[in-house]
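User: Quick sanity check before I run a bigger batch. Here is a single chain. Can you write out its predicted 3D structure?
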Amino acid sequence: MLAFLFTTAISMELVLRLVFGFCNAPLYRSDKDYEYFPQPNQNRFRFFSHFKTNSYGMRSEEPDSTKTRVLGLGDSVIYGGTWMDQDSLATTHFTSATGIQMLNISAGSWGPDNCAAYLRQHGTFGASAMLLVCSSHDAYDVMTFIPIVGVLNNYPEHQYTLALQELYERYFFPIVIGRIYSWLGIAPSESQYVDPDVQVERNADNRQVIQKGLTFNPGFDELKKIANSCHIPLIIYLHAEKGELADGSYNDMGETIIHWCDTASVKLILGINSETADMYHDAIHFNTKGQRHLAETMKKELCSTNSISR
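Assistant: Done. Predicted structure follows.
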């Protein structure tokens, strides 16, 4: 019996590691200026997808001084995560199709202020243009610097020693606890990760909506200043969440971003005009079709309209 259990455990450990990529998760590091970012020089295979970062932590190849470069800025929509293979990212498609290198400077839950802080620290890498992919919630998604690296499951700092341990702690246990809370009608508390000044509301579908901060995200103005100082264009792609797509309009936060772009004379692409429901991986993130659509939109805007000079 003990031999059977031991053999089963070893088999499961090997399958989790070799097939599903457990103990090979993308890792993150904290930063005093922009909260957190993927660790540099990663080359991982997880959940049947390839995940790679360069020496700057970007999900791109090393910046190539022989090529025209543009910056792809944003959050998990452009970052992709472990559900999106490196070759399926919009930034990868754009680079392959145009010969212009798009550097992917993004991370899950980043806002424009994270992007601006990263550029303040590292520079713009000689880019000829900046394209920010954002969503309505980014209007008030301001940095809080509440620790998440090594605290939240989605932002590990180190690999697990055992795949079975990772399966239990990152997936099985949270799901079980979530089900228990659901059965009891209790919302799990995340007060240790949420700014005490955030505004918590519920929308028409009774889904919790958290708006971080009380003022418009200063990163929009910062990115505009950085672009102006480098004499390069800033373009914003306003991605619609699936609920907004169904409604046919952006919510109030999205309208705030639209108003800012109009006032600041920043080129704005309204994703809601061309995105379709079959482009979504979930309620907000693109699937492979959505990433290709984003790449084509980037190509049309940056190349066809001569927004950049080679």
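The two ends are 68 Å apart (CA to CA).

User: Great, the batch can go ahead then.
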